[in-house]
Amino acid sequence: MTDDEDGYVAGRIERALASDPRTHELGVRADVRDDVVILHGEVAGERRRGLVEEVVRDAAPGLEIRNQVSVPELDPPGEETLS
To answer: What are the sequence ranges of the domains in the chain?
Structure first.
């Protein structure tokens, strides 16, 4: 793919993540290089991370996906971290 095509596919993926009812995700960015999609950002949980990848597979079939989306570790409620 050319750089223009890569950009078009990345935009299509990000629009799919924002509009798909499984995710409605605005915090994930897609970089496309040749036939590889690299996903960056943070989501609220592992299930959500998996749904992001599922939506990307539907939006860009046949491309390799490198899911680098992270899930932040949160302290349990009621526990405070002292510095």
So the answer is: 3-67
